[in-house]
Amino acid sequence: MNDNDELKEWDFIGRRGGDVVTLVSGSVIAAVPEAQRAAEEARRELRFDFLDDRAVLTMLHRRHLDEEDMFKAGFAHGVPLALVGFGAVLYWAAVAQYWETAAPRNAYLAVAITVVATQFFFFVRSAKSHWGDPVRQNLRARAAAYRKIAHIARRGGADIPAHYPHYGPYPFAATFHPEVDDREQSESKKADDHGDR
Questions:
Q1: What residue ranges of the chain have pLDDT lower than 70?
Q2: What does 103-158 look like in DSSP terms, one character per residue?
Q3: Gap between the Cα atoms of 86 and 83, Å rounded
Q4: Whole-angstrom distance, CA of residue 102 vs CA of residue 111
Q5: What was the pLDDT predicted at 112?
Q6: Rounded CA gap, 112 and 92, in Å?
């Protein structure tokens, strides 16, 4: 079952496994002039209306699913890589290095390196497909911008919870790709099943 199925109309998950957070209305953010200017500037740069409650809520739901996907992929490939790598090193340290002839040691090293390299390849491929996907990067770029706008509004006196919306700045995977913007927007519209406030 999707986490979003159990949420109230204007709620979202702040982080993977985190608390449920209620969306702060765009009118609250827009009431702070500096935040409104930041939202308008980000809208031009990232082609997204950061004061549109429906669009922002959809973006935050998608960002939560993106984080879940990254965690699952990292767990699925990172844990086997760590276990296989640790096991190979441990077996070498405890057993293989003491074998009397070099041939079995070299054969073990060749097999161990091949297995670890294969696991590492799948880990890197999975990481690149999630971190490097331009549609996902657009999503993260918008989430990062929304976080900055919300923080500006909070510093300007708006009633916004600390750390809202509870996502980080994504410094390594939040490059905006305007050439894939239409694809992301169409996916957002398909995912959006909430009405206006």
A1: 1-5, 15-17, 167-172, 181-197
A2: HHHHHHHHHHHHHHHHHHHHHHHHHHHHHS-HHHHHHHHHHHHHHHHHHHHHHTT-
A3: 5
A4: 14
A5: 92
A6: 9
Strand, coil or helix: 75 = helix
* Cβ pair 14, 186 in contact under 8 A: no
DSSP 6: G
Quick check: bond before 165 cis, omega within 30?
yes
Distance CA 153, CA 160 (A): 8
What is the pTM assigned to this prediction?
Answer: 0.73
Q: Residue 43 is encoded by which pair of tokens?
A: 């809208």
For residue 140, CA distances in Å to 11, 143, 173, 178 come to 19, 5, 7, 13
Other beta carbons within 10 angstroms of residue 11's beta carbon come to: 18
Angle in degrees, CA 143, 145, 151, rounded to 5: 105
Tell me if 160 sits within 8 A of 28, measured CB to CB.
yes
Q: Can you tell me which residue has the tokens 């993260």? A: 140
**Cα(88)–Cα(95) distance, rounded to whole angstroms?**
10
Residues in CB range of 61: below 8 A, 6 or more apart: 4, 12, 191
Alpha carbon distances (Å) from 93 to 20, 109, 144? 47, 12, 45
Q: Which of 33, 68, 70 is nearest to 155 (CA)?
A: 33
